[in-house]
Each structure stands twice: as C-alpha cells, then as structure tokens.
Amino acid sequence: MACFIVPAAEAVVVTAAYAVVKRREKKLETPSVKLENGKKIEKDENKAAWSRKLSWLMALLWGGVLLLAFEHFWHGEVVPFPPFLTAMATPESTAEMLHEMMTVGVSMAVTVTVFWAGICAFVDIKVKKAKAAMGLAE
Which of 54, 66, 94, 98 has its CA 20 to 30 A from that of 132? Predict the structure, then answer.
C-alpha cells in the first residue's frame, strides 16, 4: 500500500545530506601529491568520498522508491487524486497501511542501508589494499 513512503523519506534526508557534504567537499579541495616516479595524483584520488558514497545510497533508495510507487500505481493502490493512497479511504485500511509502513517500509529502508554500508566497507577495504600496493599507506 504505502511501504515506499518510508524509503522515500530516507531518500529525502540522504539527498539533503548529500547536498551539504558535496558543498563541504568542494570547499576542501586537496592539493596534488607528487610520487617518486614523477607522476602527480590527487591526494584523495583513490578514496571514495562521502558524497560519492551518499550518491550510491541515493540511487538505491530513489530507484526502489520509483519502482515501488509505479508498481503500487499499476495495481491501483496509488491514484492521481486525493487522498492519493486508496488505503486512506477508511480508518481500518489506514491503520493497516500504517502497520505496513512500520513493518515492511522500515525493513526495506534498513535492508537497503545495511546493503549500502556493506558496499562502502568493501570499497574502503579495496582502496586501502590499492594504496598499500602503490606505497601510499596512511
């Protein structure tokens, strides 16, 4: 019914955080580092920035929200006129909708966020190994 509203709310918060982090990262530009072999690389070139990681979470959340909203629209659970959610027609169906949001919606949002955290941890490990192989260990 309305399970996509919880991940949508998380996506809105993540999008706002992304905008703030991106703005701060632009202010803190890092100087380039010269390697022994004469090559120049940016200090954080091999580091996945927080704005990039948040963009991955945004893509996961917004993609899921759009697909779920379309699916609910396709099945007639979301309509283009007020109250927009057919589950809000009666108090009983509204209570059922809220229960679904608290169970299914929250579990979907948590699952996507945990999956994203796993991706970020994997990338951080790979970056650390790449830096060690290049002799740029911190």
Answer: 54
The CA distance from 74 to 40, in Å, is 53
Q: Which two tokens stand for residue 114?
A: 């945990």
- Identify whether the C-beta of residue 84 lies closer than 8 Å to the C-beta of residue 94: no
pLDDT digits (tens, 9 = 90+) for 85-108: 888 888 899 999 999 999 999 999
Quick one: CA dihedral 57, 16, 81, 4, positive or negative?
positive
Angle at 93 between CA 2 and CA 11, to 5 degrees: 15
Distance, in Å, from the CA atom of 123 to the CA atom of 119, rounded to the nearest integer, reads: 6
- Per residue in 50-89, is it b (16+ CB within 10 Å) or e — as a string? ebebbbebbebbbebbeebbeebeeeebbeeeeeebbbee
The angle subtended at Cα 111 by Cα 106 and Cα 115, nearest 5°, is 150
pTM: 0.81
pLDDT tens-digit readout, 3-30: 999 999 999 999 999 999 999 988 886 6
Helix (H) or strand (E) run with residue 37 in it: none
